[in-house]
Automatic annotation (TrEMBL):
One Pfam family in the UniProt entry: Peripla_BP_1
Organism: Neorhizobium phenanthreniclasticum
Protein name: LacI family transcriptional regulator
Location of the region described as Disordered in the Swiss-Prot/TrEMBL record: 1-26
Sequence ranges assigned to domain HTH lacI-type in this UniProt record: 28-82
InterPro entries: HTH_LacI, Lambda_DNA-bd_dom_sf, Peripla_BP/Lac1_sug-bd_dom, Peripla_BP_I
Keywords: DNA-binding, Transcription, Transcription regulation
Basic and acidic residues bias spans: 9-24
Amino acid sequence: MSLEDLEDEGRRAKPEPVRERAGADTKPTLKTIAEMTGLAVTTVSRALADAPQIALETRMRVRQVAEQIGYLPDRAAQRLRTGRTNVISLVLDPHEEILGYATSMIRGLTEALRRTPYHLVVTPHFSDTPQIDPVRHIVRNRMADGIIFTRTEPSDPRVKLLMENGFPFICHGRTELATAHPYVDYDNYGFAYQAARKLIDAGAKKLSIILPPERFTFAHHMRHGFMTAVREEGIGFEIARGVTLDSNSNDIRDYFYRRMDEPERPDGFICGGEVSALAVMAAAYDHGLALGKDVRLVAKQTSGLFDQVRPRVETIYEDLSEAGLLMGRLLLKRIAGPVPVHELQALQTV
């Protein structure tokens, strides 16, 4: 420890009350915190960076004062000094199917980033523009130290771009690329397989599933799990045509309402989200069909919505908060230095 640090520690041994900052309208700086705590500016900087050479008590005191006065680091200066932005960018494609998708994922991510210098910035991506555009913009302008994105495709161009540039990332979902890459994913094969088995065991004679758009990798996983189960039993099945999990809920309801009015209608339904499940329930109700008797349903649950629905609906849970937490932790691990890819991969089981 340097002489300067020893002098600081000596002053810390005789703590002074935190002095009020003069000029409340001025932006607080490292010097402001140094004046309020009686520490050197360099010690304050290292304490905020969580340097292990600084005593834990000192680090906690500095962070407390920083929070009290609303101190925010100068990111431009920080970037010039360290080459880092201390920003994690989450690229999100807003869609209505999964209730609380963004909220749950952000909750997990922010938990992973707590007590770190990193800030989470949400970058929206809309379906009428190429998925790669926001990612390319972030990489080209070095707007973040790492990227998290969702809804992967089998040959996802975002994964290719980031791997070619050696840019840290974690994606929510897998690809079919030959080169292994970091990801956190949910076992959608297992979800569809188990959902089909539940319906078969409950007495359903013909199953129907509504899938994500074909371009997404998890659509293939769900189809595979579903087809494995129905082929094992030799039971009747169909895959919804003309609507997907991304379709408007009214369109999903209308599709199944028409289907329930036709001969050889299915009596067991697998829904990959709560919105599509509610649409199927509405179609059944409008036909006067009883849930659990005339029609059976298994839904993927990501919120507490179906805990309050009566009659009860069979659900299989996907923990999006846990997914966010895992992605945040793995991305921080990757940013810290080279890591074997298999240590940056996680699959949430059903």
